[in-house]
Amino acid sequence: MSSDSAVPFHRSPIIVGFGGACVDILAVVAAFPKPDDKIRSTNLKIQGGGNAANALTCAARLGLKPRIISKVANDTQGRAALEELEADGVDTSFFVVSKEGCTPFSYIIVDSQTKTRTCIFTAGYPPMIPEDLSRDSLLSALEGAKLVYFDGRMHETALFIAREAFCKNISILVDAERPREGLDELLTMTDYLVCSERFPQAWTEVASLSRALVSILLKLPKLKFVIATLGAKGSIMLEKCFDDGRQIEEVDVDSSLESLTKQTDDSIATPTCIPSSVTKFRAEGIGSVCGRLYVGTAEKIPPSELIDTTGAGDAFVGAVLYAICKNFSPGKMLPFASCVAAAKCKALGARSGLPYRRDPCLASFSL
Ligand SMILES: Nc1ncnc2c1ncn2[C@@H]1O[C@H](COP(=O)(O)OP(=O)(O)O)[C@@H](O)[C@H]1O
Ligand SMILES: *[C@@H]1O[C@H](CO)[C@@H](O)[C@H](O)[C@H]1NC(C)=O
Ligand SMILES: *[C@@H]1O[C@H](CO)[C@@H](O)[C@H](O)[C@H]1NC(C)=O
């Protein structure tokens, strides 16, 4: 098994990501405009975006060699998106570039007062279809891969890739923002799930977040863990453990989460992680699952340093991809991912703040 730090860069595990790549046009405003207002920006940035492209950029800066599968058009934006990914060390040789059409892009309004980011997304054309990828090219993309990641977009092609990865026994990580077409089948093949705060309840129709996490582990027997990211409140992770027949005490999952949350210390600025012991978590009316629950705190960023949360979730996922490849324990992975996401939040756009492996902010993780 590889240790955390001994793997030389050129032998870093290969990961493959499939999903969105686009161009973001970010305008920072002092206050969000009203309809028909004419206002000035205080800062403007044009930068590559898209969930998968952002997360893989993050993983590349940390030292992985990611391959991206996505689609852009051969226009100015598309060429810029590819160049930027290449410059960051993401392998774009499996990109589909259509001669005609247009590359997807997002207008993003960053309100520096309320610290919100409002996105207006325009899908690319023509949309990606499984026929865009030959089976040969897919097989070369997956060659030697340790992990395949999906951002949940473009489900038909995602499923085409996931079925192949599944047959090859390559682990699958999915980032789920909300229930989408095709996601259910993708989730049945998923090993690691990272999702938004609202996803667990939206997908399971269960009334509390912690019970919804139990329900997710019960519905998806292949899943090893689920993490919900909660913005400035941090993250919660439920990891499945194998019930070895020992008599494990059954505990209500809502009260477990409450008691772990109480143990977090508000005076610590750096991200922390409070683990439960291996427990049989009971979700009222749903069932029970053997596992460990972790409460991760986010970094406490001073308001003057909090610039933009665009892509915070993508940075978190990029760091989780790295942590899985390097066999980090959950107790190291959650603070690490929160640290990486916090660094991202201190600069404008989804990528400017993404830290490199040697960044002082990551020194305590001995990468
Ligand atoms: N305001 C913030 N302060 C500190 N960390 C943050 C903040 N917003 C996001 N993060 C970090 O980024 C992670 C993902 O953020 P979240 O808002 O949940 O995702 P998304 O960008 O997908 O909406 C959080 O778990 C946290 O670690
Ligand atoms: C993109 O268009 C340019 C000309 O504008 C051409 O030289 C190039 O080969 C095209 N690339 C692809 C992948 O179609
Ligand atoms: C599949 O991969 C897992 C590790 O990810 C390994 O433990 C298992 O033995 C593999 N199974 C097969 C059939 O190769």
Automatic annotation (TrEMBL):
InterPro entries per the UniProt record, alphabetical: Carboh/pur_kinase_PfkB_CS, Ketohexokinase-related, PfkB_dom, Ribo/fructo_kinase, Ribokinase-like
Alphabetized UniProt keyword annotations: Kinase, Transferase
Example GO molecular function: kinase activity
Record carries keyword Kinase: yes
UniProt superkingdom: Eukaryota
Protein name: Carbohydrate kinase PfkB domain-containing protein
CDD domains: ribokinase_group_B
Listed SUPFAM superfamilies: Ribokinase-like (SSF53613)
Family per similarity comment: Belongs to the carbohydrate kinase PfkB family.
Domain called Carbohydrate kinase PfkB: residue spans: 18-241, 298-355
Organism from which the protein derives: Acacia crassicarpa
PROSITE patterns on file: PFKB_KINASES_2
